Amino acid sequence: MDHELNAAQLHQELEPADHSNKEKDVLGAPLQDESNAGLKEVCITDEKDTTGFQSPGHEHEEGELPTEEEKRALRHIGDPLPKAAFLVAIVELCERFTYYGVQGLFQNYIQRPLDGSQGRGALGMGHKGATGLGTFFQFWCYVTPILGAIIADQYLGKYKTILYFCGVYIIGLLILTLTAIPKALENGAGLGGFIAAVIIIGLGTGGIKSNVAPLIADQYKRRQMVISHTPEGERVILDPAITIQGIYMIFYLSINVGSLSLLATPYMERDVGFWSAYLLALCMFLAGTTVLIFGKKIYVVRPPQGSVITDAFKVIWLMIKHRNSNAAKPSYQQEIGGKTNLPWDDHFVEEVKRALVACKVFTFYPIYWVVYANFSNNFVTQAGQMRGHGIPNDLMQNFDPIAIIVFVPVLDRFVYPLLRKLKIPFPPINRITLGFWVGSLAMAYAAIIQHYIYISGPCYKAPLCPASVDSAGVAQGNNIHIAAQTGAYMLIGISEIFASVTGLEYAYTKAPPSMKSFVQAMYLLTVAFGAAISEALNPLLYDPAILWMFVGLCIASFLTGALIWLLFHHLNATEDQMNALDKDYDNDETLKRPSVREDF
């Protein structure tokens, strides 16, 4: 889509905007129309620090739309991140603290028996049983976002949906905590309580996950590139895509700071009991819910959009029925003498087509999630086959978020800006491909570690055999230090920065404004498919076959990354045009669907 405007179009853009049916924030104030804002002044949204740039003598250029030549010639930078986005990030941090704090203990909780010692185990279902139930939990947590997305986009909006599902989540955490008390476990309440808890928790986290990621990006309101100046006087382009990328880097950083709950919960599991770790997670979740409630007046909250999701499926059906991607457009139907009372316009069809492009890319993600899932189950079991030297086997998971916490600022503050300054493109499809390849390296590393476990005594290819049991009756694993596993977790973490963060960003920027939660749920659904594939691999979870499973995943992840690049690298060239659709939807009164925006 061409961003250049002729004189008539520019005059239309400069006309005062009618905010009577514009989106409103929770305070009731209309959200500013950013096609008009900033054309005569530096501040482009209602936040005075949105651009942060002023250049005396050049004020007449601030906020102008760049030409195609300027887009290529000028350096692209992002806006400062809106303060409300950080508040949403805190809520996500608390929820992820809870999720990983309990989920990271499930392997030991399910696998090992209740033997009277604190934290050794609870349900005694073995390696396959633990991985199977853990994988089901992951599958369930990433199917339920579809329900949360439909409720948010069509009925309640993102904020209310998150708040209500927080209540569901709290009920599940209470059940998990109470049934993990030693007396409850001794009386057989463990398995039933665990299954009930993970179903309820999965429902709660699903309703939150599909909405919190788009909610944080909703706090940023610019929808088009504009020209600005740095304090040094350099003409630059403020690019919303870069800001959205930065928002999701912060979002993912908050996720992984939260996941450091695994620095505390394994020791609480070992020294006090599983129930204490689950109680800590519950308290942290209550803190996050409190922040969500008291931050309501600060957030930009967009209301639900009516029947937009069902309309989208109708659009897709018409495309399939007529074997024509334009068949659902009212203009096309008018030409062929078809339906004339469609509740959408041509622009909405273009938005749905853009969302389908993102969904095509997402179809390859399940392979990545199979790789990723190993860090919370099979890597934990692998660590248990090594000499721990006093380190709990499920503590090693923390090197995944530590890697992310270290490398996200490095990439966001140094690497990405340097690439932009040197005009070296690093578009989304390339980042996703690199993420798959780094994930492949993680599996290769895990396979090498597994090989060294098998060639080490005292048990060799039968880790945790009776020969490894110490004087306290605890199996110590083969003679390879648990710290050797660090590299696998670090590589998984680095791969997430490229594959997972970019996936979140892609889901938001390619989704129609009225379907942000739903497309986010489609992205999260790929995690569920990955969990289903992991479940199918369950029969391979025995020694020494697990070594070859790691090798197979290494090859699969590399080939899938290569396939993504071959099939979709051409989309990098149309990135700006696809992202510009939101601008036209927000700014052009002739393109709005009455059924979607009439309530604003």
From TrEMBL:
Comp. bias (Basic and acidic residues): 12-26, 57-68
Signal sequence segment: none
Residue runs in coiled coils: none
One GO CC term on file: plasma membrane
Membrane topology designation: Multi-pass membrane protein
TM region positions: 162-181, 193-216, 275-295, 355-375, 432-454, 488-509, 521-540, 546-568
Keywords, ordered alphabetically: Membrane, Transmembrane, Transmembrane helix, Transport
UniProt xrefs under InterPro entries: MFS_trans_sf (IPR036259), POT_fam (IPR000109), PTR2_symporter_CS (IPR018456)
Matching PROSITE patterns: PTR2_2 (PS01023)
Region (Disordered), start-end ranges: 1-68
Subcellular localization: Membrane
Superkingdom of this protein's organism: Eukaryota
GO molecular function, one term: dipeptide transmembrane transporter activity
Principal location: membrane
PANTHER family: OLIGOPEPTIDE TRANSPORTER-RELATED (PTHR11654)
Family listed: Belongs to the major facilitator superfamily. Proton-dependent oligopeptide transporter (POT/PTR) (TC 2.A.17) family.
Designated name of the protein: Putative MFS peptide transporter Ptr2
Organism of this sequence: Glonium stellatum
